[in-house]
Amino acid sequence: MDLTPKGKIRCPKCATIMEKMPVTSTLEVEHCGRCGALWFDPYELESTLRADGGSLGINAIDYGTAQNYDLQVHGDGSRQCPRDASPLVKVPDPRQPHVIIDVCRTCGGVLLDAGELKDLSEFTLSERLKAFLRR
Ligand SMILES: [Zn+2]
Ligand SMILES: [Zn+2]
Questions:
Q1: Cβ contacts of residue 81 below 8 Å, gap of 6+?
Q2: Which ligand gives the minimal distance to the CA of 107?
Q3: Distance 84 CA to ligand 2 centre (A)
Q4: Per-residue pLDDT tens over the stretch 21-78
Q5: Which of 17, 19, 38, 87 could crosslink 112 through cysteines, CB 3.0-4.6 Å?
Q6: How many whole angstroms from 41 Cα to the centroid of ligand 1?
């Protein structure tokens, strides 16, 4: 039996029910208060980075630390998409290959561990600055 409340999803890492975090008036991302993981539906990650964290700011959205919890729901360490239960695939982020992100090939959702959004946003900022300086 699935006891997850309607409209909520469980963290793929530690099975905690994730809370919605408002980024902009039209965008909410799912945040795990236990391990700090973040779930982005398709395009939400790009929108969050483009809005630089929106009204909250990146540091308020991504405040956890990845090392603290490596709790696994599944014995073999695999993680499942909270939307459609497809296995999440680890891929290097195309913007910043040292950040390994978990992607769902079925729905296009992305799971970030705590600290990874910060990492990606810093890259975005430095790239923006470089582009600015090249002008
Ligand atoms: Zn979690
Ligand atoms: Zn999915």
A1: 12, 87, 88, 104, 106, 107, 109
A2: 2
A3: 5
A4: 999 999 999 999 988 999 999 999 999 999 999 989 999 999 876 544 444 444 456 7
A5: 38
A6: 16
Round to whole Å and give the CA distance between 34 and 11. Answer: 9
- pTM for the complete prediction? 0.85
Token digits for 69?
Answer: 């919890």
Distance 94 CA to ligand 2 centre (A): 19
Among all ligands shown, which has an atom nearest to the Cα of 72? 1
For residue 109, which ligand has an atom nearest its CA? 2
Ligand nearest to C-alpha 18: 1
Angle 83-13-42 from CA coordinates, rounded to 5°: 35
- Residue 42 amino acid letter: P
